Amino acid sequence: MAEITELLQKWREGNREAENELFTLVTPNLRRLAHYLMKGERKGHTMQATELVDQVYFRLVGAKDRDWRSRAHFFAIAGRAMRRYLIDYARGR
């Protein structure tokens, strides 16, 4: 778990290798989080968990300059971004 925190710091410093390794490590957890959040959505929702992960990935990449404190901080922000994306998606319908 400390490895993720180190990768977050290297990513913030602009290390592209760290970014690739980081997202390889966190993608399974992001998918689990997305599946969990999608279970709370209505039946027949047109968005899939994979699409939610993809959209949030782009938002997280755009926020690389954030002061990532830890793995938990990263996943808290990712979860918040997923919830906000789902809300925006529902409003757009």
Write up what this structure looks like:
This protein has 93 residues and is mainly alpha-helical. 76% of the residues lie in helices and 0% in strands. The chain contains four helices and no strands. The chain has helices at residues 2-12, 16-39, 49-62, 71-92. Helix 1 packs across helix 2 (16-39), helix 2 (16-39) crosses helix 3 and helix 3 (49-62) crosses helix 4. The longest helix is centred in the first third of the chain and has 24 residues, at 16-39. The chain is elongated. The mean pLDDT is 88.
What's this entry about, in short?
This protein has 93 residues and is mainly alpha-helical. Helix content is 76%, strand content 0%.
Query: Based on DSSP secondary structure assignment, what is the total number of beta strands?
Result: 0
Q: What is the helical fraction, as a range of percent?
A: over 70%
Strand content: under 5%
Mean pLDDT, nearest integer?
Answer: 88
Q: Regions with pLDDT < 50 over 5+ consecutive residues?
A: none
Largest pleated sheet: none
What structural category characterises the helix and strand content?
Answer: mainly alpha
Q: Tell me, briefly, the overall form.
A: elongated
Number of helices: 4
Give, in order, the helices and strands.
HHHH
Gyration radius, in Å: 14 Å
Euclidean distance between termini CA atoms: 38 Å
